[in-house]
Amino acid sequence: MTDPFSLELLTNYLLVSAALFALGMLGFIARRNLIVMFLSAEMMLQGVALSLVAFGRYHGNWSGQVFTIVILTVAACEASIAMALVVVLFNRRSSLDVTLWQDVREAGVAGTELADEEAEAAPLSTADGIETYPHLTPAGVEPAHPIQPWTERRR
């Protein structure tokens, strides 16, 4: 029995993975919205994962698949951290534009031309007051909620 995974099939997988990576890189460079940049980085990661799986299949071992599972696990952690950063940025600046983060740059590092456009990207009004974050109800305490009509009928 011959292995149907030939060099031509590997080439097709690598072309698709290269296209995914290129589209992700284009989206990451061209866009300034944090969520779109995050999704573009995930697309680049999926392109790399596809190429690892293709190489693993071509060589007839599981190393590519195992490495892809490790990468996906790390990507899940990265996604949670990225979403936390997105929430913090949106609470502080009321916008998801990355040019608003120019003030966290190291001292002495030259700004980009995007920094000049910061005034254009600034939100029309900033939120004043104390930042508010959603909080969870402590375990074991039932949150206050109105009684639903269907539960009143059951009494």
Short description:
It is a multi-pass membrane protein. It contains 6 helices and no strands. With 155 residues, the protein is mainly α.
Q: Could you give the topology of this structure?
A:
Blueprint lengths: L6 H24 L3 H26 L3 H31 L19 H4 L1 H4 L27 H6 L1
Can you put this structure into words, describing what you see?
This protein is mainly alpha-helical and 155 residues long. The chain contains 6 helices and no strands. It has helices spanning 7-30, 34-59, 63-93, 113-116, 118-121, 149-154.
| Structural class assignment | mainly alpha
Helix content: 55-70%
Q: Return residue spans where pLDDT drops below 50 for at least 5 consecutive residues.
A: none
- Tally of extended strands? 0
- The averaged pLDDT comes out at 81
> Per DSSP, what share of the residues sits in E-state strands of 2 or more residues?
under 5%
SSE ordering = HHHHHH
Give the termini separation. Answer: 69 Å
Largest sheet descriptor: none
Q: Which term fits the overall shape? A: flat
From the alpha-carbon coordinates, what is the Rg to the nearest angstrom? 24 Å
Number of helices: 6
Quick tags:
155 residues, mainly alpha, flat, NAD, NUOK/Mnh_C1-like
